[in-house]
Amino acid sequence: MAWYGRRGKPIAYTLVQGRSCWFRLVGLASYRFPLDAPDGVLRCEAVPEPGAEWDEVVDHYYRSLSVLAMEAYGLESLHGSALLTPAGALVLTAPSGSGKTPLALALSCNGHRLIADDAVVLDPSPARGPGRPALRPLPFVPRARDETARRFGLPVRARLPEPGAPVRLGAPVPLAAFVLVERVGAAEAEAGTRLERLSAGEAFKALMNRAYFHAPHEAARDRQAVANYLRLARVPVYRLRYPDGFDRLAEPVAALERLVAELAVADEAALERV
């Protein structure tokens, strides 16, 4: 099976052999991991391709291979960042370069801990917790671009170091909401920041379109994936449009802070009714 990136080109191939699965990341390495991970630990061996840097092989083990493997274990993933808020995990999802990382970092400066960046792994039906869809944390570091890195004092496109222990899924964090991030240009900037909730149908399509990996020749992927996204779409999904530029970043941050406060109040009220 081939996996495709946003530009429609194959970026990875998979092959199942017995109780193991091989993933080849084109131009980098081939990774093999078991098809079962009952303890939530990903165990893997890597075979680099000629000329590949080992640091990059390790970094992609975290950023790409672990995400692919978790999908093989029945989880789902979106391209985005996530923060831990009083209402639960707030997921900001957008294609690469759309401004989600600086927005997430700005929110983290307000006290909301960043718990995922670049790829967000989701459990549509967690066995523990309150039973609503949850985020499952994996090791990460923020993937900040040049200007964002300078403003927040981070390394540019930092890589993850070689693991000292196997990659292990974190405990489920109940989802508060998904926010589809869209920066607008000068022509729409006068309208300011706009935050709107999507209908269930719009939410389902939007989440499917933000999946971390694509297989366009398999429009529906499989029944389980569709069922997973239908369940994820029950979580509130919003679209946030805001003007481009760091000087306007306070506006979407304020809008998201208000949303988090509203979601926390609604969550508390729901618990009182139980």
Descriptive report:
- With 274 residues, the chain is α+β, with helices and mostly antiparallel strands.
- It has one domain: Alpha-Beta Complex (Phosphoenolpyruvate Carboxykinase, domain 3), CATH 3.90.228.
- Helix content is 30%, strand content 30%.
- Strands 1-2-3-4-6 form a five-stranded antiparallel sheet, with helices on one face. A five-stranded mixed beta barrel has the order 7-8-12-10-9, surrounded by four helices.
- It is globular.
- The relative contact order is 0.15.
- Residues 214-220 have low confidence and may be disordered.
Structural class: alpha+beta
Distance between the first and last residues' Cα = 45 Å
Largest β-sheet summary: 5 strands, antiparallel
Total helical segments: 7
Give the strand content: 25-35%
Q: Number of folding domains?
A: 1
The chain-level mean pLDDT equals: 83
Order of strands across the main sheet: 1-2-3-4-6
Total beta strands: 14
What Rg is obtained from the alpha carbons, in whole angstroms? 19 Å
At the fold tier of CATH, the topology name is: Phosphoenolpyruvate Carboxykinase, domain 3
A few lines on this structure:
It contains 7 helices and 14 strands. It is of the alpha+beta class.
Q: What labels would you give this structure?
A:
7 helices, 14 strands, Phosphoenolpyruvate Carboxykinase, domain 3, 5-stranded mixed β-barrel, 274 residues, 5-stranded antiparallel β-sheet, globular, alpha+beta
